[in-house]
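User: These chains co-purify. Model them together.
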Amino acid sequence: MSNLLERWVPKVVLAPTFVAVLIFVYGFIGWTAWISLTKSKIMPRYEIDGFDQYTKLFATPRWDTAMNNLYLFGGLFIVISMVLGLMLAIFLDQKIRTEGVIRTIYLYPMALSMIVTGTAWKWILNPQHGIEAMVQGWGFAGFRFDWLVNPDMAIYTIVLAGVWQSSGFVMALFLAGLRSVDGEIIKAAQVDGIPNWRIYTAIIIPSMAPIFLSAFIVLSHLAIKSFDLVVALTGGGPGYATDLPATYMYAMAFSRGNLGQAASSAMIMMAVVFAIVVPYLYSELRAKHD
Amino acid sequence: MTIKHVIAASSAMALLAFPAVAEPTAEVLHWWTSGGEAKSVAVLQEQFKERGGVWTDMPVAGGGGDAAMTALRARVLSGNPPTAVQLKGPAIQEWYEEGVLADISDVAEEQHWGDVLPAQIAEHMKCDGHWCAAPVNVHRVNWIWGNKKILDDNGIAMPTTWEEFNAAAEKLKAAGITPLAHGGQAWQDATVFETVVLGMGGPEFYQKALVDLDMDALGSDTMIKVFDEMRVLRGFVDENYPGRDWNLATAMVMNGEAAFQIMGDWAKGEFLAAGKKPGVDFTCAATPGHGFLYNVDSFAMFDVGDDADKVAGQKLLAELIVAPSFQETFNLNKGSIPVRTDVSLDKFDDCAKLSSKDMNADAKDGSLLPSYAHGMALRGEPAGAITDVVTAHFNSDMTSEEAVKQLQDAVANAM
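Assistant: Joint model of the two components:
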């Protein structure tokens, strides 16, 4: 009897979540893939029509802008957040007295929602009310900081706000990583008279490789699904200069009544995620297998 | 008396109190939730209740109707659509093609809608020849609003051609005043664009380019000139325009920070709400050129099946919406003009009277045209494709030739 329970209880308990995930994640991925092959407009239609939506998608300059923005924003956001986060973590690791307070201060932006971050930065960067106006008020009349309203620079304001939000979190990740490195090795290195920077570059950082991978995965999925930050900070503008794939998809699905086109852009977004996650999963699973 | 008797007696009473006549019920999905708009829709609600109806309000705010459309999709997919939905222009036809709209021709004919509505506008309310929607109001889109004091101080009259406008704007710029208040949001860029198309190309060109999507018109020299003018206008806008809301741009004209704004007559509501008087504090005029671009709000009636209460409610609602008394009160609140041509305009301001006069005149010579920027002329996909090009051109240093080429490609791609 107890044997039977042991065998069945876990399965019964897991079954509802399993079914839910099956339907609401994989089922709907399938549904979206299907819709992306149809001519759906305001309502879903189910007659398969081929790859028209994808052809249209790739012929749309706005989609090109969105994808280029994703690469630019994603690349800079991930690299800068990781470098900044690592530097902050290393500085905090110097056994300073107020570490607890400083760590909390750096981690706090993470507690804000992206909408709040976006709105705050929108005010800070607004040329008429923010930094530009302030510095000009100090007497530097020629000072210009108009990234927010400059179509060529606006995407970098999103990087700025995103990095501000996330680097503290990356710092916490790295700090945990730094602390997990075996103290004995570091002591041995110090006894041998190896300079501090060498200890970091040659011993500590290489032994944190898994943390780098986790940070990269977390940041890259944040970058790909970025939506609220753009909506709050620039609204996709000026023009559509700061559109990202997620805002493009939203515009197609909900403002323009073009479900087929929205579905095809969602599928491409998923492909980008897969391109990052699949190699990661592969390496993880293989590592366990060995 | 036992409990049983009490129940029997009270249920008999209940039957007496509610005779077996249909009780009109209507569930109305709309996104009129802000100040003046909410007041306007409350008027309809009251009139509906006075006639014995049961009104279920379903306001869905957010995203300029996007959120409401999402709610509508969910309701239609679940087979339980609302009675009436705030929809307009070609979107009505799109929903009709999904086979979910009702036929309200009997009400329309009983109330002689065909005789009192301008033919162009009536056409939007029909699905395959029968009536399926009730129009609420007419907004004119091609207005230019001016700060009276600034214009007088600088000796500028309201421009009647785009050359005059450019000359006036140069003068203002030299005097240190921002000539044009504008908010850099895609729909506002598109609003300015369509008035320039109408002004520089004329009504016929507008019809060909933005309604019929004629490739030759879209690629013509006239269109290149239109984009040239957009580039000139870009120079008349202050640096800080991206993302600005339209009502903030209106406030700039009000406060004397800017001289002109090109915006539909909902901007008038902002002036009036701030206690400004037409002709004294601000002036209204049609944008340079000839024609009338309309933006008509309406309620599409959804198929509610055989439910007698709902069908009765739908008919009552349609009747009330187009009836003169509601048309007057609603439009006084909202800043637009009645869609009926036979409603007295005594209580309306001069801008509204001008709008109504122009509508009646332009209806006759074919220059009463649907606004593309406000979803009256085109379906979502081609309209969005055009807006993308317009806003990309306005917010970059793209040449007019390149813009025209992109415009043709975008429209072809969206077909």
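The two ends of chain B are 75 Å apart (CA to CA).
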